[in-house]
Amino acid sequence: QEPEEKKIALELLETEQAYVNRLHLLDQVFYTELMKEAKNGKTVPEEVVKMIFSNISSIYQFHAKFFLPELQKRMEDWSCSPRIGDVIQKLAPFLKMYGEYIKNFDKAVELITIWSEKSPPFQERIADIQKRKVCANLTLQHHMLEPVQRIPRYELLLKDYVRKLPPESPDRDDAEKALEMIFMVAKYSNAAIAEMERLQNLWAVYQRLGLEDDIVDPSNELIKEGPIQKVSIRNNSTSEKYLFLFNNMLLYCVPKVIQVGAEFQVHLRIDVDGMKVQELNDTQFPHTFLVSGKQRTLELQARSGEEMNAWIK
Asked: CA angle 270-274-277, nearest 5°?
């Protein structure tokens, strides 16, 4: 009966072997052949192929030439030296390469869709490769997802491995340290994705606002946006406005009737610093609240009590 930790180490080796085959398919087959066609000017620009595959070549080389051989050697020597922790410690820092690939993933999938529509020869080339036995009836997009899922897989296997190690195992210290390192890398790639999404969303908001110079700042954070009624005491009426609340400013906007470029026109900007917000008990205009800042004071009406409370909060 094999000890539990050896079974997990063998599973790591087997999945790594399968993973290297998948990377070989992505880099040496899809990327290489699509690049060759692009160079002949038959399908899509070379830049597009490079953007789709990001840094897959580096990832493939690293796993095929370094990590897999090291792991194989470890498993061959298992009987006299049962350990994999040290090899995984060497692997962990290189997994930061995945940050770039993972960040690029959504864009890559989008590019495949766009260019498959634009260039039938490109679509045909991909379809041809997908028909090969090595693709196992799976699409290019499916194979491309594999590197995205690989780091969480290492984390799970290693957690299991550490759990099953006998207390006196010579690999305990190394394996625990390796797990900690893998955990940090997983956090790093998740943080990279979150930061990229934040910047993309922020950029989309800035475009809707017409990219006003004093507003575009990558460090801003959008907290809430939505339509609001502006109460006018003078005319005893309300008019439709739109608010964008950032961590440092409130933008009071007017929806544009003719939407060329921007969707909104910024009428007023109130700094959050020194701002006061309070609920008003106005019987004529329910769900109203007052926002007073350095620049101006506004009386605003929400559509419901809940919405008003959400804005105040």
From this structure: 75
Tokens 């759990």, residue located: 163
Domain that holds residue 244: 222-312
Q: Is 15 part of any domain?
A: yes
Q: Judge whether 14 lies within some domain.
A: yes
CATH code for the domain in which residue 28 is found: 1.20.900.10
> Tens place of pLDDT for every residue, the chain, 313 residues?
788 999 999 999 999 999 999 999 999 999 999 999 999 988 899 999 999 999 999 999 999 999 999 999 999 999 999 999 999 999 898 998 998 898 899 899 999 999 999 999 999 999 999 999 999 999 999 999 999 999 999 999 999 999 999 989 999 999 999 999 999 988 887 887 787 778 778 888 888 887 765 677 777 888 899 889 888 877 788 888 999 999 888 988 888 877 666 788 887 888 888 889 988 888 788 889 989 888 888 888 888 889 989 998 9
CB 300, CB 286: distance < 8 Å = no
What Rg value do the Cα atoms of the chain yield, rounded? 28
CATH number of the domain that residue 262 is part of:
2.30.29.30
Tokens of 47: 């830049």
Same domain, 202 and 250: no
Q: Are residues 271 and 172 in the same domain?
A: no
